[in-house]
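ingest -> validate -> predict -> emit
validate: passed (alphabet ok, no gaps, 402 aa)
predict: started
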Amino acid sequence: MKGNIRKRSKSSWQITVDAGRDATGKRRQIAESVKGPKRNAQARLAQLLVELESGVYVKARKDLTVASYLHEWLNGYVAVNCAPRTQESYHFIAEKHIIPAIGNVHLVALEPRQLQALYAKKRASGLGTRTVRYIYGLMSQALTHAVKQGVLSRNVAQATDPPRLEHKGINTLAREDVDKFFEVAKDSPYYELFYLLLHTGLRRGEALALRWKHVDFGIHSLGVTAYISVSESLSKVEGKVLIKEPKTASGKRRVALSPSCALVLRQHHEEQKILRESLGGTIADGDFVFSKPEGGTLDPSTVSKAFSSVVEKAGLPHMSLHDLRHSHATMLLQAGTHPKIVSERLGHSSVRVTLDTYTHYVAGLQEAAALKFDELLMSGPRVDRNVVEMLSVGNLGGDESV
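emit:
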């Protein structure tokens, strides 16, 4: 298989490859135009030869730009296979950040360097790392679909390096501030919800989708998975609250309740029952644990605003409702709970997610591990017990900088 390069103008080259003969015996040639220095044409020629030899060559659709393909992908694949909220975010990212920058580029001519330059430009403009990585993720998914559909021979996004995710500090409720928080929260209509979030680590959506049939007061536990159906979580799209399945199997789980949390929920059930009966209704197993007086779902944003108000009135540092989940995790880890158990309670996909998220922010874990190791070897002849005890309480003198 042979190919050649012919100069067309100062910065334009014609690539021609002899691809043998087709089924009718007719000579088959592939021709493409490449702009830029000759090395671009040489690189494309080499790529073409490899694609033809390996049987993955795809004839370029000259009418297909990045913009037109993304619109096809969004209105076809995404519209059918993704949840409404995901569709909304994909459309926003594509229209706001990708299409204005590289939408006019022919899809088959898109190069890794153009995507890499897009990441750099967006970061320089002040866009957050997480959003830039979202751009990368969207393009990677879209181009993977293009390869699968035979529109492209390779996914150039996979040859790029998005910026590394910056691990920002998390806010947590200090143990000494818990009583202060709930002293103010008891006057909020969402007191029981806040109590449950701190004591279980549930996500806001999981708690708001919780139904009474998921709560087992007999064994002090609740199911983020229903007994006869899938687990549920809440999302809000275009003003409507939707119930949907969790994204991962680990999201379906059973979470043990502390005695105090079970008691708060039981009292909440009785109060909800009295209120519903005063309105001429009753409580059914399928009703939401946290709901409007008449039984409708709560607005997630309203709950979050109420939480912020409680935090402010209590004079505590700023934090979001999701930080109650962070507080639950860090307190358990500080208490020596095995990370695997914490991971299961949180519904993480793996214990690695839990460790990567929280161990950087739990003070004293390294020190506790070192002391624990000494305790394991305390009976050995090499260990001076008195020295170890002095070290553990900080009573040993000397140069602290060593």
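The chain has four domains: 2-54, 66-159, 175-359, 364-402.
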